[in-house]
Design brief:
By secondary structure, the chain is mainly beta. The protein has two domains: 110 residues, Jelly Rolls (Sandwich); 69 residues, Jelly Rolls (Sandwich), CATH 2.60.120.10. It is built from no helices and 18 strands. The strands form four sheets. Strands 2-3-4-10-5-8 form a six-stranded antiparallel β-sheet, with no helix packed on it. Strands 1-16-13-18-11 form a five-stranded antiparallel β-sheet, with no helix packed on it. It has a four-stranded antiparallel β-sheet with strand order 12-17-14-15, with no helix packed on it. It is globular, with a radius of gyration of 16 Å.
Length: 194
């Protein structure tokens, strides 16, 4: 098990693929043989971003996306064939990067967390940890993001405090137990394809 604390002051910023806003990049991975870290070499990425005005999402062929509102409320994603309801914070929606999506903001600006992965390169999951309790984590990379205030977790036999907007990155070679001790957090899980 390798544990790394990712501090908010070290996060990088990058533009949305369509140029409509700015991501705060929390963590990510790109192909090792790639000359540059760009959308074509992306394996996975966890990022947060404000959505302050209605508009289209970036077209991202080959990318699977999970998204969750962490501040604000009233977000709805609309595509020609369906709606994704994120009106309530900490609700996860899943959609593909090929889908034409336009945002509707029913109650003003929101901040969201996105977990994206190259289809076939990784399996991803994004959930809110809101109540004390234990869950089993599989081998892979797990990111515990303190989206709303400080939180405390226990991973295996060790306890960790995570300050607001910081992230604990756990790279597990075997299954382990994660317990939310105090506060709340967002858990992003990535398992690379063999």
């Amino acid at each position: 098990m390798k544990i790394t604390l990712l501090k908010s002051e070290d996060y990088s910023r990058s533009p949305w693929k369509n140029g409509g806003g700015i991501f705060t990049d929390i963590a990510g991975a790109w192909r090792a043989d790639a000359a540059v870290k760009d959308w074509s070499s992306l394996l996975w990425r966890l990022a947060s971003t404000p959505i302050v005005a209605p508009g289209p999402f970036s077209h991202m062929p080959g990318i699977d996306r999970l998204q969750m509102v962490v501040n604000g409320r009233g977000l709805v994603l609309k595509s020609p064939t369906q709606e994704f309801d994120e009106r309530e914070p900490f609700t996860t929606v899943r959609f593909t990067g090929e889908m034409e999506v336009v945002t509707a903001l029913e109650e003003g600006p929101v901040e969201v967390v996105n977990l994206m992965a190259r289809r076939g390169a990784a399996e991803i999951d994004l959930i809110a940890l809101r109540e004390s309790g234990t869950r089993q984590l599989v081998a892979g990379t797990h990111l515990v993001y303190a989206a709303r205030g400080d939180c405390r977790i226990r991973l295996g036999d060790e306890e960790f405090s995570i300050s607001h907007e910081n992230t604990l990155k756990a790279e597990l070679t075997a299954a382990s137990q994660l317990t939310l001790v105090a506060g709340m957090a967002v858990l992003g899980s990535i398992r690379l394809a063999a």
